[in-house]
Amino acid sequence: MTLRCTITLGIGLLLLAGSQRLPAQEKKDPTDPSAPGPEHKVLERLTGTYAAKVKAYFAPGKPPEESTGVMKRKMLMGGRYLQEEYEGKIGPESFSGMGLVGFDKIKKKYVVTWIDSMSTGFMSSEGTYDAGRKILTYVSEDIDPSTGKKMKGRDVLRFDSDDQQTFEMYRQATDDGAKEVKVLEIVYTRKK
């Protein structure tokens, strides 16, 4: 046997042995902070492709601007994270966005990171799931791009049924005593 054949055979055996260990690695103790837990199953329920009906509230007292889009969601890294990819419009403008959602077992919080075509920053928030009401609620503190001032955020994702969710986004300026206002509502309906 030549040296090249021996090396190739050795690499092949290592790859085969490594691939046979992967399933065992995925079946870790659920108390292990690196293993997915029941909180990740909540996120897994969101996987699929959804039609989105959007209402964007740009000015107080005026009717929302309506548009449509498509949300695609899939689990990544052995069920640890939910990836969201959105394509559609906000008002008359084309809009695309991408998010990662997970459950941090150390913090005991759901965490979200979002980027989109209408900003240059990362939005991040943390939250909890109310199993009785079937609602994920996230809170954040960010900068209002139109004023440059700090604002609080509250995002709510309600599981209306196995095939529909309603997302609502609320924002509140932190330094002028303004009330929280609804800025966005999206109804997601699973495509079959």
Brief overview:
The protein is α+β, with helices and mostly antiparallel strands and 192 residues long. 16% of the residues lie in helices and 52% in strands.
Outline the secondary-structure elements:
Blueprint: H1 3-26, H2 38-44, E1 48-56, E2 65-76, E3 81-90, E4 93-104, E5 109-116, E6 123-130, E7 135-143, E8 150-161, E9 164-173, E10 181-190
Antiparallel strand pairs: 1-2, 1-10, 2-3, 3-4, 4-5, 5-6, 6-7, 7-8, 8-9, 9-10
Features:
52% strand, Lipocalin, alpha+beta, 192 residues, 10 strands, 2 helices
* Total number of strands: 10
Q: For this structure, what is the CATH homologous superfamily?
A: Calycin beta-barrel core domain
- Arithmetic mean pLDDT: 85
Strand content is over 45%
Percent of residues in helical segments?
10-25%
**Helix run count:** 2
Overall form: globular
User: At the first level of CATH, what is the class?
Assistant: Mainly Beta
Can you put this structure into words, describing what you see?
This protein has 192 residues and is an alpha+beta fold. The protein has helices at residues 3-26, 38-44; strands at residues 48-56, 65-76, 81-90, 93-104, 109-116, 123-130, 135-143, 150-161, 164-173, 181-190. The chain has a single domain (38-190), classed as Calycin beta-barrel core domain (Lipocalin, Beta Barrel), CATH 2.40.128.20. The chain has two helices and ten strands. A ten-stranded antiparallel β-barrel has the order 1-2-3-4-5-6-7-8-9-10.
